[in-house]
Design a protein that fits this description.
Elements lengths: L1 E6 L6 H15 L3 E7 L16 E4 L7 H13 L4 E4 L5 H11 L3 E5 L7 H7 L4 E4 L2 H8 L9 E3 L6 H9 L1 H11 L5 E6 L8 H11 L6 E6 L8 H12 L6 E5 L4 H7 L2 E4 L8 H8 L3 E5 L2 H6 L7 E3 L4 H13 L1 H18 L2 H16 L2
Parallel strand pairs: 1-2, 1-4, 2-3, 4-5, 5-6, 6-7, 8-9, 8-11, 9-10, 11-12, 12-13
């Protein structure tokens, strides 16, 4: 099959990682993948496995970019594309118009829980299938009352579980990573994600302030970048850490390319998010056999079994977050048991192979092949 993936994202995040991983998996299955991207983006090199002629660069300025839609339709026809697949809500109308003009079936993936506006809801009708990355996302789509249930397919995000599993076993590289980040730390506790308010880094810092007086040899990693224009949120977080006398305990690492080894270096992974439709980094931490503490977001509750593969605490409760982290700090055996349980669950349910196979099946059903 010849499949066109679309994303107007400027920066690399969970949705873009999904697109890249899916594209790699489909290439390995023998399909030819094409990608339509924004003219200026910061992540095109992650699609280096695609030939240059398979890339289409467009303005993709907004949901009503008719010029981009026409160019996209022309590109799709010229390349004999069989499926158009869009991943961002703002790309849905453009992709829908391109699908209508080219008469090529459209697939949409919905990654978020946020409500869609009327123009997006209208374009959902153009789609042959809408993939929801979690049950919570599927339920939010159904609540719009404009999509028939049979149009929605639940396909959990996939992670390369093997990469995280192998990183956890590589003692030499894991030790080197720890020495580079925090050479004097006995315990590393980390949270990973773009620096944004709903990701809960503030609560992570407030939990650190509770834990630090009790455990002098603990360091807290905040892994991720602030992609806003002025990086105001990172400045806020850094000031908060200073106010709470945590300048020596909190480490802002920025974005890290070798995420499997960052996960491997941790004793405990924390997700303090206020809203999480799936939680890709939670699945990665599970694959890396980490002890996990997470807030009770839709995504975390689907991924984790409380008191078996992770500890779930209420959202926006840093005191309870700190208590759960403390339980893991006190008991190495408990960390190992939870980590092993989480890894087994990740391999069984959230592997990349499964996500690729289920998506390919959707394409084949649409094309009746």
């Amino acid at each position: 099959m010849r499949i066109l993936q679309i994303s107007s994202a400027k920066n690399f995040g969970g949705g873009e990682k999904h697109l890249v991983d899916l594209s790699k998996g489909l290439v390995n299955y023998g399909h030819e993948i094409f990608a339509a991207l924004r003219l200026k983006n910061n992540w095109q090199e992650k699609l280096a496995f695609l030939p240059d002629e398979n890339l289409c660069h467009l303005p993709l300025r907004n949901s009503v970019d008719i010029f981009s839609a026409r160019k996209l339709a022309k590109f799709a026809v010229e390349k004999n594309i069989e499926i158009i697949h869009a991943h961002l809500a703002r790309d849905y109308p453009v992709a829908a118009l391109a699908s209508n003009l080219s008469k090529i079936p459209l697939v949409l993936t919905r990654h978020l829980l946020f409500p869609l506006n009327p123009i997006h809801r209208l374009t959902l009708k153009q789609a042959a299938k809408i993939i929801a990355v979690s049950k919570g996302v599927a339920e939010s789509l159904l609540s719009n009352n404009v999509i028939a249930a049979e149009k929605i397919a639940l396909i959990y995000n996939g992670v390369d579980t093997n990469v995280f599993e192998q990183a956890a076993k590589d003692v030499e590289k894991r030790t080197k990573m720890r020495q580079n980040i925090a050479p004097d730390a006995k315990f590393l506790i980390g949270t990973i994600g773009e620096l944004r308010e709903h990701k809960g880094q503030e609560d992570f810092i407030r939990a650190a302030a509770i834990i630090s007086p009790k455990y002098k040899n603990v360091k807290f990693l905040i892994v991720g970048a602030d992609n806003s224009q002025n990086q105001n949120y990172q400045t806020y977080l850094e000031n908060l850490a200073a106010e709470l006398n945590l300048k020596n305990q909190i480490i802002f690492t920025g974005w890290q390319e070798n995420m499997p080894m960052v996960v491997a270096a941790l004793e405990i992974f924390v997700s303090a998010a206020y809203s999480e439709p799936f939680g890709l980094v939670i699945a990665e931490a599970m694959a890396g056999a980490k002890a996990i503490v997470a807030t009770e977001t839709n995504g975390a509750k689907e991924l984790l079994k409380n008191n078996r593969t992770g500890k779930l605490v209420p959202v926006k409760e840093p005191i309870l977050l700190a208590e759960a982290i403390g339980e893991f700090l006190e008991d190495e055996n408990l960390r190992h048991i939870y980590g092993a349980n989480a890894q087994k669950e990740a391999i069984e349910k959230f592997g990349l192979e499964r996500m690729t196979a289920e998506t390919e099946k959707i394409y084949r059903e649409i094309l009746e092949i």
